[in-house]
Design brief:
The structure is a single chain. By secondary structure, the protein is of the alpha/beta class. It has 2 domains: 11-148, Murein tetrapeptidase LD-carboxypeptidase, N-terminal domain (Rossmann fold, 3-Layer(aba) Sandwich), CATH 3.40.50; 156-288, LD-carboxypeptidase A C-terminal domain-like (Glucose Oxidase, domain 1), CATH 3.50.30. It has 8 helices and 14 strands. Strands 6-14-13-8-9-10-11-7 form an 8-stranded mixed beta sheet. A 6-stranded mixed beta sheet has the order 2-1-3-4-5-12, sandwiched between helices. Helix 7 packs parallel to helix 8. The mean pLDDT is 96.
């Protein structure tokens, strides 16, 4: 399923499925959305707090269901990541999503929900910027709005090609630590024949090694068509092993194309990637092969 394209004057819902939200940062982001010509509805628990969560699980799940059942909400943007959206997976009813698809946007901890929507509901979801940082990421916001309005996804030149070749498949993945955390659960990502995108922030090289090794030993890399790595700021020191060193060691005998440096999510976060859409990597270029909104 493809969500309908955004049009001027549409209502955009803002949810906080994960961590506690900074009110001032969110207000700046909401102002960006309104300046772009959209109306904003915020979930009831956006500013709630239950320890490190934006309200307890029931409240956050209730916000999800209310927003997804609201026929006037054209798209749902996440306020921030942090931690907590994976706790909602057993609570979520996707029937309203199937009846009325809409764009769902986020990254980081929202990797849980993005892949659940793509895999269980068959809905293209969007690995893109989150509202609390909209004011600081004008290029990323412009790219997101253009994509959701029906603009053609750009051909993305990867910064590095670690293993050349061509491959095609459905684009899945997101934050590496979350993709690894989903292994062994009912919501584990089906990576067979897929292009697996992985990015993260502030993870040390040995932890990246551990998570990739977990994916490898769990069989999640056995049948991938190709690997696409994003940026990993705060992870690798100038005088230590590189991300390429770690990846090519863990994936030494994995005969698939591997590219890196795609700026989606943490880091520059310039580009929004449509998860669940068919894509192709060839010659260091990532291309989305289908329209991503209706």
């Amino acid at each position: 399923m493809k969500p309908p394209r955004l049009r001027p004057g549409d209502r955009i819902g803002v949810l906080a499925p994960a961590g506690v939200v900074d009110a001032e940062a969110l207000a700046r982001g909401v102002a960006v959305i309104e300046a772009a010509g959209f109306r904003v509805d915020q979930g009831a628990s956006v500013f709630a707090r239950d320890r490190y969560l934006a309200g307890d699980d029931a409240a956050r799940a209730g916000d999800w269901h209310a927003m997804m059942a609201d026929g006037d909400v054209a798209a749902v943007f996440c306020a921030r990541g942090g931690y907590g959206s994976g706790r909602l997976l057993p609570w979520l009813d996707l029937s309203s999503v199937r009846r009325r698809p809409r764009a769902f946007v986020g990254h980081s901890d929202l990797t849980f929900l993005l892949n659940h929507l793509a895999q269980a509901a068959g809905l293209i979801s969007f690995h893109g910027p989150m509202v609390s940082w909209f004011a600081e990421q004008p290029e990323a916001v412009a790219n997101l709005f253009d994509l959701l309005a029906g603009g053609a996804p750009p051909a993305i030149e990867a910064d590095e090609v670690w293993r050349d070749g061509a491959a095609e498949g459905v684009l899945v993945g997101g934050c590496l630590s979350i993709v690894a955390a989903m292994v062994g659960t009912p919501w584990q990502i089906d990576t067979r024949g897929a292009l697996l995108f992985l990015e993260d922030v502030n993870e040390r090289p040995y932890r990246v090694d551990r998570m990739l090794t977990q994916l490898r030993q769990a069989g999640s890399l056995a049948e991938v068509a190709g690997l696409v790595f994003g940026e990993m700021p705060g992870t690798f020191d100038a005088d230590g092993p590189t991300l390429a060193d770690v990846v090519l060691d863990v994936c030494e005998d994995l005969a698939v194309p591997i590219v890196a440096g795609v700026p989606s999510g943490h880091g520059r976060g310039t580009l929004t990637l449509p998860l669940g859409a068919r894509a192709r990597i060839e010659g260091g270029r990532l291309r989305i092969l289908e329209t991503v909104v209706g």
